[in-house]
Design goal:
With 374 residues, the protein is α/β, with parallel strands linked by helices. It has 10 helices and 17 strands. It is extended and about 100 Å long.
Length: 374
C-alpha cells in the first residue's frame, strides 16, 4: 500500500515568484492496477510522480510505501532501487549499449543477480526477445519504449512509475505499450501520467485528475459501450478497419457467441447506425466516451444523432440506406429544406415573392421591347 498525506511542494518558496506545484495532496493506492494521473501540462502530475519515485523532494507532508517513510532516506533509497521501476517519455536508455546490456544495468543498480534468464523473461514479456543483441540506437521509438518497460520490470518491482510513456509514439506503438502496461498492472501497481483523455478512459482502472496542483477528482473508471459496462476496454478484443478514408475501431467481448449485425452508413457529416437486436447509444454524452469508435477524422469525429428515438432512427435507416440483406445502398443525393423557425419561413416567403415579381417585370419588359421594335 502507498499513502500520500497532505503533500505540499513549492518552487521559489517565500519569493515574489513563488509557485505552489503540489497543494495538500491526499491519496492512497492499492498494490495493483493501472492508475492514471491525468491533467493538462503544468498541472502538477509529473511533479507528483517524481516525488513518489524519490526523484524530487517535497516541502511538507508525508509519503510512505509498504510501510517505509520517504523521510527515512537510507531505507527509502534502498527500497526504491529494488522495488520501483521507472518508464520515461524519452526512454532514457544508453544508446551505445545493446538491449541486453541496458537491462542488465537495471539489475546491477538494484543489486540483483544479473542473469541473462531474467533479461530474457523481461524481453519476452514485451515481445522483444529477438532484439537482445541489437544496439539501442538502431531501434525505433516504439521498440525503445518496450525495452524501457523491460528494464523497469526486470527487477520484479512493486511499483512502476510511467511518465507520458506514449508521448513520442505513433498510434500503433501507443496501443502496444499501453496493452503491455495494462497486462503488468494485473499484478503490479502502475502509475501512468498522461494528458490524453482517450488513453486514460480506455486503459486506466482509476483516474485521478489534477488541476492547478490539486486533485479535483478521483474516480474508478467504468466505461459503457453499446449498453454493456466494461472496465476497462483493454480487457476485451479489438480490431481496426480502414477503407476509403474511414477508420473503424471495433471493441467486443471475447467470450460472446452472439452474432451482432451492425450496419453503418456515412453521408457527408452524418453517420447512421443500425444494430439488429442491440441497444444503440442515443446521446452525445454517452457517445463522447467512445468518439473514436466511428471517426472520419481525428479532429472532427462523426457523431450519432443526439436524442433521436430508437425506432425512428432504425426505420429511417432501413428505409433510406439498407436493402433486405443489410448492405448499404447507393443513395441519391437529396436536398431537404427544413424550415425550423419563423425567421426561416419569413425569409423563404420573401424570397419567393421577390422571384415572382422579378419574373413578371422581366416579362413585361420583354413585351414592351417587342412592341417598340417590330
Amino acid at each position: 500500500m502507498m499513502h500520500v498525506r497532505n503533500l505540499d511542494k513549492y518552487y521559489n518558496k517565500g519569493k515574489s515568484n513563488e509557485l505552489h506545484v503540489l497543494n495538500s495532496m491526499e491519496l492512497e493506492f492499492s498494490d495493483k492496477g493501472l492508475v492514471a494521473l491525468f491533467g493538462k501540462s503544468g498541472s502538477g502530475k509529473t511533479t507528483l510522480l517524481n516525488c513518489l519515485g524519490g526523484l524530487d523532494g517535497f516541502d511538507s507532508g508525508n509519503y510512505s510505501v509498504d510501510g517505509i517513510d520517504s523521510k527515512h532516506a537510507r531505507k527509502f533509497n534502498e527500497y526504491r532501487r529494488k522495488n520501483i521501476g521507472f518508464i520515461f517519455q524519452d526512454f532514457s536508455l544508453i544508446d551505445e549499449l545493446t538491449v541486453e546490456e541496458n537491462i542488465l544495468t537495471a539489475l546491477a543498480i538494484a543489486g540483483d543477480d544479473a542473469t541473462i534468464e531474467k533479461v530474457n523473461v523481461a524481453l519476452i514479456t514485451v515481445g522483444m526477445e529477438r532484439y537482445n543483441k541489437r544496439i539501442v540506437s538502431t531501434l525505433s521509438g516504439g521498440q525503445k519504449q518496450r525495452i524501457a518497460i523491460a528494464r523497469a520490470i526486470v527487477i520484479n518491482p512493486c511499483l512502476i512509475l510511467a511518465d507520458e510513456p506514449t508521448g513520442n509514439l505513433d498510434k500503433e506503438n501507443t496501443i502496444k505499450v499501453l496493452e503491455i502496461l495494462k497486462s503488468i498492472s494485473n499484478e503490479t501497481l502502475v502509475l501512468l501520467v498522461s494528458h490524453e483523455r482517450e488513453i486514460v478512459e480506455q486503459y486506466a482502472d482509476r483516474i485521478i485528475e489534477i488541476e492547478q496542483a490539486r486533485v479535483v477528482s478521483d474516480t474508478q473508471n467504468k466505461i459503457t459501450l453499446l449498453g454493456s459496462t466494461i472496465n476497462p476496454v483493454s480487457q476485451i478484443e479489438s480490431k481496426n478497419f480502414t477503407t476509403n478514408g474511414i477508420a473503424l475501431n471495433l471493441y467486443y467481448s471475447a467470450d460472446s457467441n452472439d452474432i451482432v449485425r451492425l450496419n453503418i452508413a456515412i453521408d457527408g457529416d452524418s453517420v447512421y447506425v443500425h444494430c439488429e437486436g442491440k441497444e444503440l447509444i442515443q446521446t452525445h454524452e454517452q457517445y463522447d466516451i467512445f468518439k473514436s469508435v466511428i471517426s472520419k477524422s481525428k479532429d472532427n469525429p462523426a457523431c450519432l444523432p443526439a436524442n433521436m428515438p430508437k425506432n425512428e432512427c432504425q426505420q429511417s435507416f432501413r428505409r433510406q440506406l439498407l436493402d433486405s440483406r443489410g448492405s448499404i445502398k447507393k443513395v441519391k443525393k437529396k436536398v431537404n429544406i427544413s424550415l425550423k423557425s419563423k425567421m426561416q419561413k419569413t425569409t423563404a416567403i420573401v424570397m419567393a415573392l421577390t422571384a415572382i415579381l422579378i419574373a413578371i417585370t422581366m416579362s413585361l419588359f420583354d413585351g414592351g421591347d417587342k412592341n417598340r421594335y417590330p
